[in-house]
Every structure is written in C-alpha cells, then in structure tokens.
Amino acid sequence: MTRIFQTTLAAVAMLGLAACQQVLTTAGGFILEDRASEDQISDAKIGTEILKVLADKDKMLVVDLSSDVWEQRVLLTGTVTSQAQKQEIERALRADRRIREFYNEVQVVSKEEQDRRAKDKQDQGRSAGQVLDDVVIDTKIKAKLVTEGAVSSVNYRWRVHAGTVLILGAARTEAENTLVMDTIKGIEGVKNVKTYIRVRPAR
Question: Is 155 strand, coil or helix?
Fold first, then answer.
C-alpha cells in the first residue's frame, strides 16, 4: 500500500471516526465504565478534536499516531520523523483547554522506519514480526483483564509498541493497580510497562 493510498484511507477514516466516536462511546460505555456519563462525553469530544487537529496538519498523522483519552488525560503514541514535528503536534493539541494532562510517548524515527512500520501494520496477521507480536500481546492483555474479576477492564486504555505496554486509566484500589501491572508484566513478550494509571481515592 503506497503512502498516497494510505493518505486517502486516512482521510476517510478520520471523517468516519470523527462522526461516530461520540456515538460509539455514549452507546457502548456509559453503563459499564465506572465514571459519570458527562466525563465520557468530554473525553469523546477531546478525542474527536485530536483527530481533527492531526488531519488538518497532515492526514497521514491519523495513520501514524494514536490517541487515548481518560478523564481528560491524553496519551499520544505512534511515530513522527523529527523532534520538531513531535513538539509542534504537542503544542497544537495542548491548546485544547479541556486536556488536564498530556503524555507524549510519540517516537521519533527515520522516514524509512516509519514507512516500514506502516507496511507492517498493513500486513499484520499475514507475516511474522514485531507488529504481529504486539497484536498478540494486546489480545492477551484484553483477555486477561476482561476475565479477571477483581479488575474493571473498561477503565483502562493501552497501546503496545515493540513489546512495551503503555497503559492509561484508573484503578479503584491500590490492590487493583498492582494486579493489573502484575498481569501485564506476566504476559510473554512484554518487555516493559509504562503506566499512567491513577488510583482513585477511597470513598
């Protein structure tokens, strides 16, 4: 898949996500997530604005970057090809005053490396490699957290990059936080875990 074709797909994806993100969140998450519906709506709107800002700068950023929002805290991951671009994107996104905290975990790589990763994403499931390993890790995290009765898995968002797990969310107790971390670290292929989990105050 050429970068030109990817750009076209990115534009279509951005428009679709921007249109449906809030609907999907409001329809699918309000009853399950352990937080107010107003909070979820706010996060959905922030996520939609992030997509718009990225697409306005460069439609390929919608392909190369991913964002997760929890309680107005934003985790940005993916790749860009210069430190200046990484900083420019962060400044643009931080302009949204609804964002309370911003975690910029974007990696700076060469253009060749970025193109290779994009191709790996396209080919995932059909070839071996780190991207496929990351998909397997992601699937295992989801399965283990969903089936762990002491963990409210809907309160977490995570990304896996080259065996490193970045996780954002809220634990109901310190014990839950520890269980989540131990569960992820125990998964084969996980090399490192970087956490942005907050433990909620006891009620």
Answer: helix
Copy the structure tokens of residue 12.
Answer: 């279509």
Token pair, residue 156, equals 């977490």
Percentage, residues of the chain above pLDDT 70: 80
Q: What is the dihedral of CA 60, 158, 103, 170, to 10 degrees?
A: 150
Q: What percent of the chain has pLDDT over 90?
A: 68
Looking at the structure of the chain, the number of domains it has is: 2
Which of 123, 77, 138 is closest to 103 using CA atoms? 77
Helices marked H in the chain — which ranges?
3-29, 37-57, 61-64, 83-94, 111-123, 130-147, 174-185
Domain residues for the domain of 93 are 3-123
User: Do both 74 and 59 map to the same domain?
Assistant: yes
CATH, residue 162: 3.30.1340
Average pLDDT over residues 154-181: 96
Instruction: Look at residues 114, 116, 120, 145 and name the one whose alpha carbon lies nearest to residue 134.
Output: 120
